[in-house]
């Protein structure tokens, strides 16, 4: 059960009520968890339309979604699925799809734009942004390299500018990790992805 509604349920149990009234709408508190159902957006909630996963306010991964078009009436929900790199949004459980186009611009990285400017997000579909999106986890090694932005030159082992391509620092680690580094859209360093046949460049992790 979404924890932010737990208090309302306890109150209703004490009073014998099976519904709550918010902004003039009577909503069921007979919550039903449907773990194998799909998230359904938009759905009519107690405070209006629900169009993305909702956070409970308890823990970073406590996101839930309605599994019915009439959440206020049916009170059916599930916990939003996530991935190693993404969570929540309107298409939870999906990875980012790069590149994608948003307002006529091609992106190969997560964004902080418009109504979602307070967090990183990405499109989960190819081509022009279709309205389906998910939040990006803000972990350097889980975010793509970003090139094309000027950065302050730092003490790398060669003169290449890290804003334009992967740059080499030292040697690879004992586990065989890459010695090439890039920066993400957050300005964080990460190792450039590679394949068994290719490494570095300005499109790392891709084959010829």
UniProtKB/TrEMBL annotation:
Disulfide bonds: 39-65, 53-80, 96-122
SMART domains hit by this protein: FN2
InterPro entries in UniProt: FN_type2_dom, FN_type2_sf, Kringle-like
Top-level taxonomy: Eukaryota, Metazoa, Spiralia, Lophotrochozoa, Platyhelminthes
UniProtKB keywords: Disulfide bond, Repeat, Signal
Protein name according to UniProt: Fibronectin type-II domain-containing protein
Pfam families: fn2 (PF00040)
Transmembrane regions listed in the UniProt entry: none
Keyword match Cytoplasm: no
Signal peptide (residue range): 1-19
Family matches, as SUPFAM superfamilies: Kringle-like
Domain Fibronectin type-II: 34-82, 91-138
Superkingdom of the organism of origin: Eukaryota
């Amino acid at each position: 059960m979404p924890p932010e509604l737990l208090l309302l349920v306890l109150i209703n149990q004490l009073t014998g009520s099976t519904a709550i009234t918010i902004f003039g709408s009577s909503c069921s508190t007979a919550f039903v968890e449907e773990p194998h159902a799909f998230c359904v957006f938009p759905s009519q909630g107690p405070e209006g339309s629900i169009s993305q996963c909702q956070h409970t306010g308890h823990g970073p991964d406590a996101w839930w979604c309605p599994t019915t078009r009439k959440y206020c009436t049916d009170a059916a929900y599930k916990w939003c699925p996530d991935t190693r790199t993404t969570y929540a949004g309107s298409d939870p459980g999906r990875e980012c799809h790069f590149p994608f186009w948003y307002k006529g611009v091609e992106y190969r990285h997560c964004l902080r734009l418009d109504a979602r400017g307070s967090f990183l997000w990405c499109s989960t579909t190819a081509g022009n942004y279709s309205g389906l999106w998910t939040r990006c986890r803000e972990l350097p090694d889980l975010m793509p390299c970003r090139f094309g932005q000027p950065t302050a030159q730092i003490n790398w082992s060669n003169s290449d500018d890290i804003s334009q391509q992967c740059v080499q620092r030292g040697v690879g680690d004992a586990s065989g990790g890459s010695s090439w580094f890039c920066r993400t859209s957050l300005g964080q360093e990460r190792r450039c992805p590679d394949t068994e046949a290719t490494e570095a460049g300005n499109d790392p992790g891709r084959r010829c």
